[in-house]
Amino acid sequence: MKNDIINFIICPVCECNKFDITASSSELGIISEGKLNCKYCDKSYAISKGIIKLYDKLSSTAELELKSHESEIIESQKLVDFQDENWLLNFPNVNRMGIDERSERIGRLISENTMLSIKKFIKKRNVRILEIGAGNCWVTAGLAKDNYCVALDLLTLSPIGLEAGEVFIKKREIHFERIVADMIRLPFKDRVFDYVIISSSLHHSPDILKTLNEIRRILNSNGKLVLLNEPSLGIFGSKERLMAVTDLENGINEKRYTINDWNKFFSTSGFNAEIYLPENLEAVIKTRGGLISGLSFLLNFYFLKKLMMPIFILKFLDGYFNAVLSPGK
Ligand SMILES: [Zn+2]
Questions:
Q1: Are 165 and 1 spatial neighbours (Cβ–Cβ below 8 Å)?
Q2: Residues 6 or more apart whose Cβ sits within 8 Å of residue 59
Q3: What's the pLDDT at 255?
Q4: What is the side-by-side strand order in the sheet with 319-327?
Q5: How far does the centroid of ligand 1 lie from the alpha carbon of residue 9, in Å?
Q6: Which has the higher per-residue pLDDT, 85 or 222?
Q7: Considering the entire predicted model, what is its pTM?
Q8: Distance 216 CA to ligand 1 centre (A)
Q9: For residue 55, how far is its CA from the centre of ligand 1 (angstroms)?
């Protein structure tokens, strides 16, 4: 943690923006251990391994989700040794956590879409970017060379959580901040970010409208929320839908919404949204199998590609989408 993060955060309890910093371990202006004290309500927030725990009490959904993910990580660490730094530095082009082939494939498609979309949607440099649901920080790390970046997540355990971000910071000689907070209460001042990025995480929010309202508050008036890999439910089901149900049963908030639900969330929270199909649509269609995969060749025809309007497709088929949201005036 570097001191300048103080300019952008607020106390999640009283919303005051004045803190005292106590560093018990720091090197070259980077604090790894210590605490922040709110000058107004006196609540203190731990800084541990460079990560600020900027929350008072997590929502029950967040609490449950954190526990299930942690036990999942501990379980998978037994299978494979993930402590290898190169595994992280090569992310996302690595084998995942001893998961089944299908999840591995979905994971790869999602990261491919993420990389292509970031290139397409984030063209500005020297801007402030918050990534919500940053996980091990591989996306944030890619943006941190040219921008002021903050990675936010609930999970800290490496190799899935924020602690893993340390590897990118040290090995790539970059810096970004890491904050643990609940996404229904974002501990930031109003209008401080140019971009908020969320990849396959918004549907985990216990209250999507609350999260969207918070994002709208912290974005500056020309800011953009870049939403990537959000799943949507079509009229026809898919195998992935069943996996989401299992996750829900295990305490992971894998909620599914239709594209109509999503559009309602966006407009109710005052955002103007442009919806896009995944940038690697062809690869996605090919993995669907059967009749649908046979249709992928149609994408070679420009006019048919145009015809495949995102909303139209997303209404029928389970899938995932990208969206760029601007806060309305
Ligand atoms: Zn306070």
A1: no
A2: 182, 184, 206, 207
A3: 82
A4: 19-27, 30-38, 44-48, 51-53, 177-180, 148-153, 128-132, 193-199, 219-232, 319-327, 271-276
A5: 11
A6: 222
A7: 0.90
A8: 22
A9: 11
